[in-house]
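S1.2 Input.
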Amino acid sequence: MMETQAQQPEQEKSSLPQDILSFSGGDNRNLPKLPAAKESESQWQQIIRQIVEFLDKLPDYLGSIFNNNKQGLITLVLILSAFVTVKVAIALLEAVNGVPLLQPIFELIGIFYFIWFAFRYLLKFETRQELSQKFNSFKQQSLG
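S1.3 Output.
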């Protein structure tokens, strides 16, 4: 029995061409024959192909993400830009404060402006009403 099984694969191998594969064992004369794979893709070629496919689909992915989350992304961008603006303003003020005599001059200007504002708008009732009207009109123009 062992001799028959050992002789059968040898006969099948010798009768099959090299570029055709068949199933081993049993009666496979009626089964279709498949040509042998020439050369499979190397692992690097598969990785590169997957990367290229991903990069081809990337604009569609990003577009759908943006369309689905438009309001949240706009809010995030506004918060980040406000944060960057504050950091730049602080850095600019620190640079100005580092220049000799500019810091005390700006402090004097601020003190004099505060004194003028207090005398102009805060001492009398009529001027406080005028300031309130200006503020309300500015608020109406800004917020709509």
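S1.4 Remarks. The radius of gyration is 41 Å.
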